[in-house]
């Protein structure tokens, strides 16, 4: 899978997770389709997809034994690094520690990790 295809997989898993876990009606930006997603966000999604894929690969696919929390934390920290890469002074919500993220976002991040696992299996 190319990085662009991986970025699309990431975005698809994000949107599906938001629809599943977000309480109430999500903000439009949370579920923006790929063709209207900003370039920086596409690049960030591709980078995080690649990091998750590589982590799974160098772990000989033993990441299936990680807890959902561990998977979610990995996605969240990779995303935070991308926010610092793309923004000089990112909004605090963009770089919040995992423990400070809303539960819907923690669950969605775990879903993203598992979507990447599934795509490799």
From TrEMBL:
Protein name: Uncharacterized protein
């Amino acid at each position: 899978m190319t990085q662009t295809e991986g970025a699309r997989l990431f975005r698809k898993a994000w949107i599906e997770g938001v629809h599943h876990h977000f309480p109430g009606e999500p903000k439009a930006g949370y579920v923006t389709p790929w063709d209207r997603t900003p370039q920086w966000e596409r690049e960030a999604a591709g980078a995080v997809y690649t990091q998750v894929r590589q982590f799974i690969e160098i772990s000989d696919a033993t990441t299936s034994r990680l807890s959902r929390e561990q998977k979610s934390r990995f996605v969240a920290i990779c995303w935070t690094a991308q926010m610092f890469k793309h923004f000089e002074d990112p909004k605090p919500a963009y770089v919040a520690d995992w423990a400070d993220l809303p539960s819907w976002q923690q669950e969605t991040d775990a879903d993203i990790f598992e979507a990447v696992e599934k795509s490799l299996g």
